[in-house]
UniProtKB/TrEMBL annotation:
Ranges annotated as spanning the membrane: 307-328, 402-422, 434-456
Source species of the chain: Halalkalibacter krulwichiae
Protein name (Swiss-Prot/TrEMBL): Spore germination protein B1
Annotated keywords: Membrane, Transmembrane, Transmembrane helix
Membrane topology: Multi-pass membrane protein
Cell compartment(s), UniProt: Cell membrane; Membrane
Gene field: gerBA_4
Length: 508
């Protein structure tokens, strides 16, 4: 059963009033043009072209410079309409004139400005003809786009090197190139009261559960916001638990990962202007997987996943364990190691907790600085800065060498996780785990770990259990958990979401 407790209160927003523009259409060209210019005339990039159709019908064409193709307008609209050899214009209905003379793929005739303004703001041209009390929109959109390149946030080891870009239609094309099935459904719409951002909902008919599709549609329809400029805004507005540190939707720049999610019964949300496609629902174990796990042989995939699981444990627990054993449980450390740690901490003026906080905070600063700076400079800052500051801190007696080793291992482990969203979640929880260790030692860490598990068990992503297939228990799905079974054995889809067709491959 899907929970709609928060979203039900927003259902009234789905019936939003349509914004109306005070434009009066008239058979007199001057009156209609003056009315239109009162709405969009203040913008200097709105171009108005006045011309005469076949030397006896006055007309005006409006388009936005930069969004519309000027050469396309000149060759396929203005030149055919002004050509005196087109005798078909004389005495013919204007609809036939436009459809037979103008060489444009998509032409619409509307009887009010409200239906015409959105296409014009998207790059279409608006044609106004004297003596004709309707408006004509012509598809003249021409968008500059970034070339398809390897995704920057998800480095590919083995697999296709193409990645999503900021143009919605190109992203849909990249998915359709991989799934040539008529059951791939693409439903497009607009979101944002003022931005009117294009978005697309993608799912596999016959695989994705109908309840999931309707729930995603419902949550998107509840969004009532001025502008949606990136998919992260949509993610925050449709997730179920806004106070959870764990991501409840996946995101990817990789078309192969998005196509795999579709065939797993999940739903994609693509937003125009963003190279990140959202995946709904997502469960915890999916955040630790990468498409390369299935491109390599099964024992290589199993080894890589095991390393990721160990890295997650190190990234979450290692600084807290160091604080707990040094501050409260020195008896648990072997005598030789305890003497070594005590010797390195001699002269350090801070307790282990303050020491760890200082170093972790420094590493986070270096990490953030490396991300914001240009790539060559950022890599240098991350490596050299860490070495210089760590060595200087040890020489100054501010921190111990063991603490530097612990922080370095923790940072490396957090980089081993394939999804940035789960990596940042573990980084946040690591500081809370350190605080718990400084208060109650290992007992505090155990209590906080239990609290995390209680939260995870109760967390849902579009109705899917976040800790599946561990809780609820589903042993067949364990074949694709940490141990990645051979591909010939993986005949069923994941337990979440509960798909209409659970068979991935036949038993033959």
């Amino acid at each position: 059963m899907f929970k709609k407790k928060l979203f039900k209160t927003l259902h009234s927003n789905t019936a939003r009033k349509k914004e109306e523009y005070q434009v009066t259409l008239s058979k007199n060209l001057n009156e209609t043009v003056d009315s239109i210019r009162k709405v969009i005339g203040e913008s200097t990039d709105v171009i108005q072209r006045d011309f005469t159709i076949n030397h006896y019908i006055r007309a005006s064409l409006f388009y936005i410079d930069g969004l519309s193709g000027i050469d396309h307008i000149e060759q396929n609209i203005i030149k055919p309409l002004t050509d005196s050899s087109n005798q078909i214009l004389r005495g013919q209905p204007i609809e036939r004139v436009v459809n037979e003379v103008v060489s444009v793929s998509n032409i619409s005739i509307v009887d009010n400005f409200d239906d015409a303004i959105l296409p014009v703001m998207s790059g279409d041209s608006l044609l106004v003809i004297d003596g004709y009390e309707k408006l004509i929109t012509l598809d003249t959109r021409q968008m500059d786009k970034r070339s398809i390149q390897e995704p920057q946030s998800e480095i590919v080891v083995r697999g296709p090197r193409d990645g999503f870009i900021e143009l919605l239609q190109s992203n849909i094309m990249l998915i359709r190139r991989r799934i040539k099935d008529p059951n791939l459904v693409v439903q497009q719409g607009k979101i944002g009261r003022r931005s009117k951002t294009d978005f697309a909902l993608l799912y596999m008919k016959g695989i994705a559960p109908n309840e999931l599709i309707e729930e995603v549609r419902f949550r998107i329809s509840c969004i009532d916001l001025d502008g949606v400029l990136e998919s992260g805004t949509v993610e925050q507005l449709i997730e179920e638990n806004v106070f959870s540190p764990f991501p409840q939707l996946g995101n990817t720049e990789r078309p192969d990962k998005a196509a795999g999610a579709l065939m797993n019964g999940q739903v994609l949300i693509a937003i125009d202007g963003s190279p990140y496609v959202l995946i709904a629902p997502v469960v915890l174990e999916q955040l630790f997987k990468s498409p390369e796990d299935y491109y390599e042989r099964w024992f290589i995939g199993t080894l890589i996943r095991s390393l990721r699981a160990i890295a997650a444990i190190i990234a979450l627990l290692l600084p807290g364990v160091y604080i707990a054993v040094v501050s409260f449980h020195q008896g648990m450390i072997p005598t030789t190691l305890a003497l070594s740690i005590a010797g390195t901490r001699e002269g350090v003026p801070f307790p282990a907790f303050i020491e760890a906080i200082l170093m972790e905070f420094t590493i986070e600063l270096l990490r953030e600085a490396g991300v914001r700076l240009p790539r060559p400079v950022g890599q240098t800052i991350g490596i050299v800065g860490g070495l210089v500051i760590g060595d200087a801190a040890v020489r100054a007696g501010i921190v111990s060498p063991v603490m530097v080793i612990v922080v370095a291992l923790t940072a490396i482990a957090s980089f081993a996780l394939p999804a940035y969203s789960i990596s940042i979640s573990i980084r946040i929880l690591r500081f809370s785990m350190m605080i718990a260790a400084s208060i109650l030692g290992l007992y505090g860490m155990i209590l906080f770990y239990i609290a995390i598990n209680i939260h995870l068990v109760g967390l849902r992503s579009f109705g899917s259990y976040y800790t599946a297939p561990i809780a609820p228990y589903d042993f067949p799905s364990w074949l694709d958990l940490i141990w990645r079974a051979p591909t010939s054995i993986l005949r069923k889809r994941s337990v979440e979401p509960e798909t209409q067709d659970n068979t991935r491959q036949s038993d033959v």
